[in-house]
């Protein structure tokens, strides 16, 4: 049986790890791409792939490996992101640069590299977005702006690439519990989505036949925006 191939950025922890492992459970060869990935590490079909989104050469090397090993890519999940919160007037240019390098420019490079690997047989690109693009919270201007940029790119490419049966989906998540929230006061796991919720949604999108277009799925915990 020929396995389908998936690449998940930010794939070695949190939401990305859950998505990659769920895809592997569903029969994909799932690459967990991250600058924290350990070269050569794998658990069955879940495979670490060193890649630094902030460096074009690193992105190119990772996609070249997939091209050599498999000649195609079926699913790309743009999950990696950084969040720097604070008053807008206090942000320094470095904060904008760091955020957009990871949250926007990196995914753009991945989508560019994915296109030739998907063009022949079609594929799906899942961009992990945030409910803050729909219901912004104070002191989130930098992160929210970067997610709006990713959303806009995805929406435009959905119109440009659908003749190739390459479909882009915005998976818009409400507050999702990861270890990053462990020390936050006033928030509990019960108030949030679980990473497994996002993983099931991503796997559903990935496995949907390519005669179906899914532009957006929004998921929030029962309380909505926290």
Automatic annotation (TrEMBL):
Gene3D superfamilies: NAD(P)-binding Rossmann-like Domain
Superkingdom of this protein's organism: Bacteria
Family the UniProt entry places it in: Belongs to the short-chain dehydrogenases/reductases (SDR) family.
Keywords per UniProt: Oxidoreductase
CDD domains named in the record: SDR_c (cd05233)
EC top class, as a word: oxidoreductase
Protein name: Oxidoreductase
Pfam families to which the protein is assigned, alphabetical: adh_short
Entry's Gene Ontology molecular function annotations: oxidoreductase activity
Presence of keyword Oxidoreductase: yes
Record-listed E.C. numbers: 1.-.-.-
Organism: Paenibacillus konkukensis
InterPro entries per record: NAD(P)-bd_dom_sf, Sc_DH/Rdtase_CS, SDR_fam
Keyword Oxidoreductase part of the UniProt annotation: yes
